[in-house]
Design goal:
The chain is built from eleven helices and seven strands. By secondary structure, it is an alpha+beta fold.
């Protein structure tokens, strides 16, 4: 019973340090985002302060989701330093506890928080982000043009029940579901060219693009005019926004289906697979941050050098996040499998932290 009480006490220390760090960073991000919304309100049209604050709150979970790893690292360092400062770690060691025994509550807590971050916090953040985007469009009368490029027309390769096609547009609205100035090149299932379609506009429906005022040109035939013409696609109105838009609005539970639809439409799903693998690896990432924190936080205050160790730990943490981002970009470029780009950095930092702790503990 005494051992369970001690582990519960250590877990509470870790929890307070992690949540405290996370809340502090969240407040700072909320203030920065609120100021940015005030700037946009002055640029696009005045809006009530309460509505801007509500919008910032809805956007906050998606922005702070990326802070979970940092909160685990900084919060764990703070918790271990507090235990060390009060000589509680020294007492535990004198009582025969090894580093693995008093880190066990923190590791278990980190794993549980990582699972909750994936199955609860991520879907909550995605839904809140979607609501914030809708509120932004209603408030400022502006929408994100998902198909817009910096210059020139936009081209999209897709697949459908009748075969693949390439569709281009001079402009887009309604978050990519309505196109104007449309040109489509349609192929059969074997990849042979079938026809070219020029249309004034196109609306995405379930299973097809509905083109209006369309001219259809086929090899060896005269051009034909159609008021309405259909081009098959596996993209759906529910999926096109996520397939072409921001991953901040995609829930963990929606990613497998979205990956399947994106592959079926012959679009690149690398960034979706990277996101899915990153979420799956998050519990291990949280545990790795606790191990990394322990490598720089177990020295006694009397021995000195605590500030240097903590700074080295934070530098090591930022170095890991930089390495993980580089690996992620390599994976999104298709130069490495998604599981390698996401799991390899986490496994490496875990092995390095365990090696350092073994050296510190056993020499």
């Amino acid at each position: 019973m005494t051992g369970f009480t001690l582990e519960l006490y250590i877990a509470r220390r870790f929890l307070s340090g992690i949540l405290g760090t996370f809340l502090l960073c969240s407040v700072l991000i909320f203030m920065i985002d609120f100021v940015e919304l005030l700037r946009q309100s002055g640029k696009y049209g005045a809006a009530p302060a309460w509505k801007l604050a509500a919008m910032a709150l809805y956007r906050l979970p998606a922005y702070t989701e990326f802070l979970i790893g940092f909160a685990m690292l900084a919060g764990s360092i703070a918790a271990l330093l507090m235990l060390s400062r009060k000589s509680e770690l020294a007492v535990m060691r004198a009582g025969g506890m090894s580093v693995w025994q008093f880190l066990r509550p923190g590791l278990l807590l980190a794993f549980c928080l990582g699972v909750l971050a994936v199955v609860v916090y991520n879907p909550l953040a995605a839904n809140a982000r979607t609501r914030a985007e809708r509120m932004f469009a209603e408030t400022f009368g502006r929408e994100t043009n998902l198909l817009a490029t910096q210059s020139g027309d936009t081209w999209l390769r897709q697949n459908g029940a009748d075969g693949p096609s390439i569709i281009g547009a001079a402009g887009a609205s309604q978050r990519g579901m309505k196109l104007t100035g449309v040109v489509a090149y349609v192929f059969d299932a074997a990849g042979n060219f079938v026809e070219r379609v020029d249309a004034a506009s196109a609306d995405l429906k379930t299973g097809f693009w509905q083109l209006k005022d369309a001219w259809v040109v086929r090899i060896g035939q005269q051009p034909e005019k159609f008021e309405t013409y259909l081009v098959a696609t596996y993209l759906t109105p529910e999926r096109v926004q996520d397939a072409l838009g921001s991953l901040l609005s995609v829930s963990f539970f929606d990613l497998p289906g979205l990956i399947e639809v994106t592959d079926k439409a012959q679009l690149s799903s690398d960034r979706l697979r990277i996101q899915y693998a990153s979420l799956l690896s998050r519990p291990l990432l949280c545990m790795a941050m606790v191990l990394l924190a322990a490598t720089v936080s177990l020295r006694s205050f009397r021995s000195g050098g605590i500030q240097t160790m903590v700074i080295l730990g934070m530098i090591g943490g930022f170095g890991f996040f930089l390495f993980a981002e580089v690996a992620r970009q390599i994976g999104m470029a298709g130069l490495a499998p998604p599981w390698v780009a996401t799991w390899l950095p986490v496994l490496l930092v875990s092995l390095v932290a365990v090696t350092v702790l073994l050296h510190q503990e056993d020499g």
